[in-house]
From TrEMBL:
It comes from Micromonospora deserti. This is Phospholipid phosphatase. Its main location: membrane. It holds the Pfam family VTT_dom. Residues 36-160 form the VTT domain.
Length: 465
């Protein structure tokens, strides 16, 4: 790498600008841009600006212009060849209803998706084409894309410039971070799929037991001793049956919680984020004053996970009393009067997953501070309960307050040195993902109930909720 940098420093600056611009533009302009090292190129441009071979200002302008040009060409290609793709054999197999659903989704989330895609290696190559194929107006695509380009290009070039002699280290860490983002996206997709499965199977223990009963060994036992099982179930009674079913469902939640915690911890641990823990801790330590520490400590002491769990229990009980009757299954319990139960499960999961050990400077030597995870999940649960079925100003206010609370409590714990930056990121992701499972499950079940009622209405059959 040192020999490569030395040889590049001997080339004419105009040639370096041209080649770097072509690489950055080609990453999105051509479909083979998936294989083009755009991030590494921008880091290299920043390093060459640090070494004096290039000038920082012109380098930023040229790279931004190249990235915008590549995205525009990709958008135009999607706009031009998108209808042909839809009308072809592949498009017919997809079906018009799926194309229409994709158009509606991109119209609703397209701007934010275009911005976020700039930070993910494969997404920034494909998303401009999808936006063009979905007929997203260019006046909507352009500003979001420009914002993504400015942050991504500017951030990468400046990181390479500030890294100086540490270019190799920064390039390696940035590559690890990109891989971590891809794994994190896959984990979030898995969380959504788990929520959808729970929404379709609101009584997961009973569903899994019924499917297990179809396996050959259990099928043989049921055929041979089915009468005994029936007598045992009759003796237990419906109340105990419900209790056993809920306990089994909670055990499944424990397993799911451990799986989510393990994946998120592994993602953050291998992302390289821990490298900046010391820098952030030092920055906060330099700004601590006695009065501010006392006030912050009082806020953190009040906004603890245990207090918020009790608050969730009270709010859930009040809302459950005012809403329609809930059904006797796990999802109905944790989505209404028992909304605090998943928070208790999460607290126990985090404590068992990695016990807290004192690290340097009194910080947690773990990646999963319990308080941050439980506070995040509790605030998200409160916002979900309050906004469910409410008007949009109430929903926006609830979620804005929850986001401000998560950022405020996380920042306060960083300020006091009670957790690290990587630990805060992991625990916040865990708390948000944990709440997302139940939000998606509830929305999936509501949609299924609504579709069933609509179908019954068309057929003239009355369906009781």
């Amino acid at each position: 790498m040192h020999d490569l940098l030395t040889s590049l420093q001997g080339l004419p600056p105009l040639l370096i600008y041209l080649v770097a611009a072509l690489i950055v533009a080609a990453e999105t302009a051509v479909i083979f841009g998936l294989l083009v090292p755009g991030e590494a190129t921008l880091l290299l441009v920043g390093f060459l600006a640090y070494a004096g071979t290039l000038r920082l200002g012109p380098a930023l302008l040229v790279m931004v212009a190249a990235a915008v040009t590549g995205d525009t060409l990709a958008y135009r290609a999607g706009r031009r060849y998108g209808p042909r793709l839809r009308g072809g054999r592949f498009g017919a197999r997809v079906g018009p209803h799926r194309w229409n659903r994709a158009d509606a989704m991109l119209a609703r989330l397209g701007g934010r998706g275009v911005f976020t895609a700039r930070w993910v290696a494969f997404a920034r190559t494909l998303v401009p084409r999808l936006a063009g194929a979905a007929n997203m107006p260019y006046r909507r695509f352009a500003p979001w894309n420009l914002a993504g380009v400015l942050t991504w290009v500017g951030g990468s070039v400046l990181v390479g410039f500030l890294a100086g002699e540490s270019y190799n280290t920064v390039s390696r860490l940035l590559g690890r971070a990109t891989g971590a983002v891809l794994v994190l996206m896959a984990a979030l997709v898995a969380v959504v799929l788990a929520g959808r499965w729970l929404g379709r199977n609101p009584d997961p223990a009973r569903v899994l037991l019924s499917r297990a009963a179809g396996l050959p060994p259990l099928r043989w036992l049921r055929a041979r001793y089915g009468v005994l099982f029936l007598l045992l179930a009759t003796h237990v009674g419906p109340a105990w049956t419900l209790l056993i079913n809920l306990v089994a469902g909670l055990l499944l939640l424990f397993v799911a919680g451990f799986a989510i915690a393990w994946v998120l911890e592994a993602v953050v641990r291998h992302s390289g984020l821990a490298v900046i823990d010391g820098v952030i801790a030092g920055w906060f330590a330099e700004r601590r004053t006695a009065g501010a520490v006392d006030a912050t400590l009082a806020v953190v002491s009040v906004a603890r996970g245990s207090f918020l769990i009790v608050l969730v229990a009270v709010v859930a009980a009040v809302l459950a009393w005012r809403t329609r009757p809930w059904r006797a299954d796990l999802l109905s319990v944790v989505g209404t009067v028992g909304a605090f139960v998943p928070l208790v499960v999460l607290a126990v999961v985090v404590d068992l997953a990695e016990p807290a050990t004192a690290g340097p400077g009194g910080q947690d030597g773990v990646l999963l501070p319990t308080q941050n995870a439980v506070v995040t999940a509790s605030l998200c649960t409160l916002a979900w309960l309050v906004s469910r079925g409410a008007r949009w100003p109430v929903a926006v206010a609830a979620w804005t307050a929850a986001a401000a609370g998560v950022v405020g409590i996380g920042g306060a714990r960083l300020y006091l040195g009670l957790s690290t930056a990587s630990g805060t990121a992991t625990s916040v992701l865990l708390g948000a993902a944990w709440t997302t499972v139940f939000m998606v499950a509830w929305a999936t079940r509501d949609r299924a109930v609504g579709d069933g009622a609509e179908a019954a209405g068309r057929s003239g059959v009355r369906v009781d909720a």
